[in-house]
Amino acid sequence: MARLTVLCGGLGGSRFADALVRAAGADAVTVVGNVGDDLEVHGLHVSPDLDTVLYTLAGLLDEERGWGVRDETYNARETAGRLGAETWFTLGDRDLGLHLVRTELLRAGVPLSAVFARLAERLGVGIRLLPASDEPVRTMLTTPDGELDFQTWFVRRRHADDVLAVRYEGAAEARPAPGALEAIAEADVCFLAPSNPFVSIGPILAVPGVADAVAERAGPVVAVSPLVAGKALRGPLARMLETLGHDSSALGVARLYEGLASAFVLDPADTGLAPAVEALGLEAVVTPVVIVDPAVRGEVGRAILDATVRA
Amino acid sequence: MARLTVLCGGLGGSRFADALVRAAGADAVTVVGNVGDDLEVHGLHVSPDLDTVLYTLAGLLDEERGWGVRDETYNARETAGRLGAETWFTLGDRDLGLHLVRTELLRAGVPLSAVFARLAERLGVGIRLLPASDEPVRTMLTTPDGELDFQTWFVRRRHADDVLAVRYEGAAEARPAPGALEAIAEADVCFLAPSNPFVSIGPILAVPGVADAVAERAGPVVAVSPLVAGKALRGPLARMLETLGHDSSALGVARLYEGLASAFVLDPADTGLAPAVEALGLEAVVTPVVIVDPAVRGEVGRAILDATVRA
């Protein structure tokens, strides 16, 4: 059995992890997930990216909306709002149950990685789900209006502010979660999921030891493009590339992974970029990367595996 | 305007407070409420008795069931249970919103009394709602199976265990909430609501200074019988009186308030007990005390006020 490790963010990453699970089985897959956009809501610890991975693989995600749980209600939020609490970060009632359980475990001293192991087991999610770190790493974005934490920028202000710089608060003091470096070193293929390189993959690589573990791998490191024909399948990546001074295309993303990845997966819509990607020293693999529809994920995953296990 | 202060527990007490509000207006009423059955659920601070008062007066109580909020859902609980959390103490989703807001305020250092003031204001509840203490007081019940905290005995074990003794953990070190002693001293009438004397009124009186403030009042102290014809309108009081060695009747309750109350309100069904109540040195006031139906509460409250403001 191939051992596949995926550095991944939220929606795009979770869909890619799902594609690998459908192609290779849950036992093959380890996710090292982003905690840079974790936050406290009503005193509860919320891990939006890793929760999206968990919900996607448990079959609970609201796929239409791309976040939260299916068949959700919002009654706790309604009460909290009536009582004067801020409710710009929406938590549904079903989702709240998970945050309550997690926060209680964290307060009792259980590390975040152990909490996720328990949640994954209870939800019947067979992959190994590791946060990049058990310690806080917070993605902070410099905008013309000052520095904002990720969720304030993304949710509260609807990513309307130009992003001029990104930093990962706490990253320098954080340690990789137990097993994360080994999972990266020992995998047959290490993937950088089709997630935002600045706010999803970046905070993972910023944890000391992680980028080195990826760069020093003997086997392939395969980055999958989060852009198709210059557009993000979702989210503000295209514009963020521009305001940060990069090419707003798959090539712009490939450049960010120069020296780190050995191969770059491009959608057939971007075939024209393959020579430029090869010129960076990355093998260009052209195969579909669009995995919005759960029904196509297995096939897309198999094609990517077929093309990259030999990469 | 008469100033009315009520020492009260959960359902019975909340209905009595509602009766006084309907009879005399919200501005007239101060509740000093029981915190002896407060608990933590999923790390959240829950105050079942005071919350019942709050919900009753806000018109939000599920009156059929006698606890929790109307039109409630239980989706957070379902998730929490699926993730392995204990769920014997049911929290609905709407209710959870309140516990989240309260717990966050408490963790930020806001005292419980100030939290309740804020909640009451937000919910448009015009009475003054004071916990007996901002500090923890926990009602502990000795049973043949050992000592149990109140909610374990009442909810988890469905009050099946005989109660052989009662104590109020933390009471000796607790201080009355700001304003509670003054509200008791300065009221025109101080009521002991038709609540359980052991697990509702007892933990309030156990806070140092409260029983003295009640006993030393110049004006009337009016206890309202929680039993009618030997039966509690709700809850395990009748059996608890028996196992604790008391008369299982309104007279048994009146004896517990000897030396503390100046008058005792008996339902007409218990007219026969009036001479025995008078023999204790309490004025016996015979007037209906059944206030289950919200529609009768105003009338019952007015009759009790008419009979006792002159008591």
Describe the structure.
Chain A is an alpha/beta fold. Chain A has a single domain, classed as CofD-like domains (Rossmann fold, 3-Layer(aba) Sandwich). Chain A has 13 helices and 14 strands. Chain A has helices at residues 11-24, 48-57, 75-82, 93-107, 112-122, 150-156, 180-186, 197-205, 210-215, 237-243, 250-256, 274-279, 294-308; strands at 4-8, 29-33, 39-41, 44-46, 128-131, 138-143, 146-149, 165-169, 189-192, 221-224, 227-228, 231-232, 263-266, 283-286. In chain A, the strands form 4 sheets. The first copy, chain A, has a 7-stranded parallel beta sheet, sandwiched between helices. In chain A, strands 7-6-8 form a 3-stranded antiparallel beta sheet. A two-stranded antiparallel ribbon of chain A has the order 3-4. In chain A, helix 1 (11-24) crosses helix 13 (294-308). The longest helix of chain A is centred in the N-terminal third of the chain and has 15 residues, at 93-107. Chain A binds chain B through residues 42-44, 69, 72-73, 75-85, 92-98, 100-101, 103-104, 107, 118-119, 122-123, and chain B through 42-44, 69, 72-73, 75-85, 92-98, 100-101, 103-104, 107, 118-119, 122-123.
**What is the helix tally of chain A?**
13
What structural category characterises the helix and strand content of chain A? alpha/beta
Largest interface: A-B, 33 and 33 residues
The main sheet of chain A comes to: 7 strands, parallel
Q: How would you state the average pLDDT of chain A, rounded? A: 96
Radius of gyration of chain A: 18 Å
> What is the architecture of chain A at the second tier of CATH?
3-Layer(aba) Sandwich
Low-confidence stretches of chain A: none
CATH classification class of chain A: Alpha Beta
Helicity of chain A, as a percent range = 25-40%
Number of domains of chain A: 1
- Can you tell me the CATH topology of chain A? Rossmann fold
In what range is the share of β-strand residues of chain A?
15-25%
Q: Please state the oligomeric state of the protein chains shown.
A: homodimer
Indicate the overall shape of chain A.
Answer: globular
Number of strands of chain A: 14
CATH homolog superfamily of chain A: CofD-like domains
